[in-house]
Give the backbone structure.
Amino acid sequence: MPTRISPSTAGILFIMAGMAAISVNDMMIKQLSGGYPLHEIVFARSFIGLLFSLIIVQIEGGFSILKTRQPGLHAIRGMLVVISNMTFFLALATLPLADATALFFVAPLFITVLSIPLLGEKVGPLRIGAVVIGFVGVLLMQRPWASAETLGASRVILFLPVVAALAYAGLQLLTRKLGTTTKASALAVYIQGVFILVSVAFFLVAGDGRYAAQVDDPSLQFLLRAWVWPQLGDWVFLLGLGANSAIIGYCLSAAYKWADAATVAPFEYVLLPMAVFWGWLFWGELPEPVVWFGMALIIFSGLFVFLRERQKARADARASATG
């Protein structure tokens, strides 16, 4: 008889699959960022993703599982994922893919800190120290001693992935809370719906490109340029983004539904080497030495938090068994 996969193992497998999908997603959005507005890409991705997600809803129990008694929390979760995606993708239009991704990886550290007041998880001084080291890595990657010309981007753009990480941390903690009563496919549908509403609102306000002519910054151009009908070759990217969106929404929701935040979060680091690979392959981008060092500090701190959490869980289990 085959051994049943534990909830923690299932969460880890789901998060790694989600990270692989995210790496492809980020690569495709960066590829499209020079010719389409962000809200058009988000609309196409979410509309197609919603269709895939509704199919999964049918498999997991039908449309009845979309009913919820906590619409307010789902709305907050949806807005957090919109903020996280929008700020990260705006940074992606200007920053190298690996740099933006590495800065975003402060998210697991935010999750560790926020899990204390929001989930009641206990975090000791060693893990808090690791979090501080991780934030030092973020500071190094911000290169406060360098000028804007040297950085190739404004301080605001460099800070956007950190904002994205904070919103993402809140999103995943809410996923953990809501996942006890809501199927992963339903969580994904709610997110796709919020994305569609927000992108339509952007279209109504700025879809004709009226504001794009007033700005020169690549990130703001990406946000404000006019909608255009996609070129034939770009439909492959848009369809791929839609399918990927459904995979990402389901896998991330399932990961944080099945396993606790401290177990799942560190495995998101598999995204970083993928981002370095895509950046090198498509745009010839490789991080500077100080960025590599900042990455190393962030990864070290995240892995330490994970190992410390596993050690504590084993100690608690032994104490329960002997007590």
The chain has 14 helices and no strands. The radius of gyration is 20 Å. The mean pLDDT is 84. The longest helix spans residues 289-322.
